[in-house]
């Protein structure tokens, strides 16, 4: 089963985007919408303020990738986009790990080689304009606007965690080297100034959000104790729940990824002592072992998970369920109960229950809203605008900034049940 991307690919010229095949049908239509949103989104500001012009951020290919065995699925070198900081942000670094689903079979991974999710041959320069936490607009992104910002491209299909090889049907080699990519890119960035950071934040969205959770402690361990190092995982809290047909279909996807790409090395040793590796790949287990301060940003009604985990195509949804998963406003009261607290499914309650362990982690933060959306840190409209989601009377940017800089205590907000929050605008990314 191929899971396509709903992760923002940031702003690329339309002529550089190609029509996706059927195996990416779950993700790239949303990604195209994301590209448009990133170019148009931003806070609603008075005309007195001038918005900085978009800046193209070139692609940097990893040096010596082949020698390090740190390559994309097709063997090409991985890449990243580095935008240098300025002023008091010159020694502050934000590293963002791109998302884009996973590939759990040889066929899926072979297909990804024809796109940027599996080959750097298709990666292009980007613009961070309007991109929320990556944006350079001080009004929209006051806490991180002038930091060194890095967008690490995702081309391994296993959340930067695999270390193996496979053989494609055409006889060519499939390189499952996500862990080596992560390690080699961070090593190279350390040489480019990351080692001198006074503050650092590892972030990621969707499959990149899961990667952030997986690598958070390793990232933190690279710095001395006097450096403020934290992690922010956006829309990466994927749940092990049964779908509407009663099957653990998403478990099967993760099980395929775990065994095909050999992700054991990144999994917590204490979890592996008494649980299956696949179970340890789910965030509900991962967060029990993480020591580094983390901010978890997620919707309790994550649109991607409702569409692909709770109501996947394989569950053969009827017309009412198909309509519901397309837009939560179409869901009946009975369906909302399934999303909230059904004994067999309990999607929202399962997520909220998993955060009980975070209550005892004083330096962690939560922003769990009830909006039907996915990936909120990379859109200006979600991150910090007049119509962005608010909890505790704070936008996501305000809550995350206060948490990171220690301006307030107890940044742990879990929203009430849908549709209680009036700030969940219909204009948010679907």
Automatic annotation (TrEMBL):
The keyword Hydrolase applies. Keywords: Cell wall, Cell wall biogenesis/degradation, Hydrolase, Secreted. It is an enzyme of class 3 (hydrolase). The keyword Hydrolase applies. SUPFAM superfamilies: alpha/beta-Hydrolases. One of its GO terms (biological process) is cell wall organization. InterPro entries: AB_hydrolase_fold, PAE/NOTUM. It is found in: Secreted, Cell wall. GO terms for molecular function: hydrolase activity. Its EC number is 3.1.1.-. Hydrolyzes acetyl esters in homogalacturonan regions of pectin. In type I primary cell wall, galacturonic acid residues of pectin can be acetylated at the O-2 and O-3 positions. Decreasing the degree of acetylation of pectin gels in vitro alters their physical properties. PANTHER family: NOTUM-RELATED, PECTIN ACETYLESTERASE. Belongs to the pectinacetylesterase family. This is Pectin acetylesterase. It comes from Triticum aestivum.
């Amino acid at each position: 089963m191929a899971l396509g991307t709903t992760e923002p690919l940031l702003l690329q010229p339309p002529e550089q985007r190609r029509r996706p095949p059927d195996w990416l049908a779950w993700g790239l239509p949303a990604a195209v919408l994301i590209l448009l949103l990133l170019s148009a989104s931003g806070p609603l500001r008075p005309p007195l303020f001038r918005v900085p012009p978009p800046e193209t951020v070139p692609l940097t290919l990893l040096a010596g990738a082949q020698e390090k065995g740190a390559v994309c699925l097709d063997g090409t070198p991985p890449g990243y986009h580095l935008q240098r900081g300025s002023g008091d942000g010159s020694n502050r670094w934000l590293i963002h790990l791109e998302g884009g689903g996973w590939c759990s079979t040889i066929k899926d991974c072979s297909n990804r080689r024809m796109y940027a999710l599996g080959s750097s041959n298709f990666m292009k320069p980007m613009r961070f304009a309007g991109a929320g936490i990556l944006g350079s607009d001080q009004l929209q992104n006051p806490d991180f606007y002038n930091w060194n910002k890095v967008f690490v491209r995702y081309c391994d299909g296993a959340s930067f965690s695999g270390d193996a090889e496979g053989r494609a049907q055409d006889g060519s080699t499939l390189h499952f080297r996500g862990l080596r990519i992560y390690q080699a890119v961070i090593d190279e960035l350390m040489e480019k100034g990351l080692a001198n950071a006074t503050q650092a934040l590892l972030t990621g969205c969707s499959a990149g959000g899961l990667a952030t959770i997986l690598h958070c402690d390793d990232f933190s361990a690279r710095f001395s104790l006097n450096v403020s190092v934290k992690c922010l995982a956006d829309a990466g809290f994927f749940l092990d729940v049964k779908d509407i047909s009663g099957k653990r279909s998403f478990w099967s996807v993760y099980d395929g990824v775990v065994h095909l790409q050999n992700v054991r090395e990144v999994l917590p040793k204490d979890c592996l002592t008494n649980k299956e590796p696949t179970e340890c790949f789910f965030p509900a287990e991962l967060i029990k072992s993480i020591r580094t301060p983390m901010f978890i940003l997620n919707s309790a009604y994550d649109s991607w998970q409702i569409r692909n985990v709770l109501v996947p195509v394989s569950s053969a949804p009827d017309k009412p369920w198909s309509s519901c998963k397309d837009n939560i406003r179409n869901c009946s009261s009975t369906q909302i109960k399934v999303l909230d607290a059904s004994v067999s499914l309990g999607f929202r309650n399962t997520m909220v229950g998993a955060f009980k362990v975070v209550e005892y982690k004083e330096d962690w933060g939560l922003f769990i809203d009830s909006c039907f959306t996915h990936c909120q840190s990379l859109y200006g409209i979600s991150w910090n605008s007049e119509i962005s989601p608010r909890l505790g009377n704070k936008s996501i940017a305000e809550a995350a900034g206060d948490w990171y800089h220690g301006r307030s205590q107890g940044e742990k907000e879990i929203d009430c049940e849908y549709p209680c929050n009036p700030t969940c605008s219909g204009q948010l990314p679907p």
